[in-house]
Design a protein that fits this description.
118 residues
Length: 118
Amino acid sequence: MSRDTQLKERWEQLVNILSNQFSQGEDLDLDAIIYLIGVQELGKVHNEYKKDEKLNLMHIAICRLLEPYGFYEFEFFDEEGWPHYKVKEELPPLKAGEQSVLMKEAIVNYFLEREVIE
């Protein structure tokens, strides 16, 4: 099975699982899944968040997702429990489609590590 085909199948499986769990079956988009990962990483799953906090949650998720690729490194948790990352290497310029594939691959790997998908 090609890498692209495997990624596509795993992505679809993951979207199905998360959509059924968090949105009554309506497919979650990439941003919604990134937001969920940010909430998971923060560990405060039952809170309601303001708009700026939601953006910060998505930033946390992106840092965590791209950490294994060497772009970010975890630094510390602040007094409120929010994780902070530092940039290790700037992301290369990517076209929109390339960004999407990178993020989907990183998300699939994140959920493979947690054994949510196979």
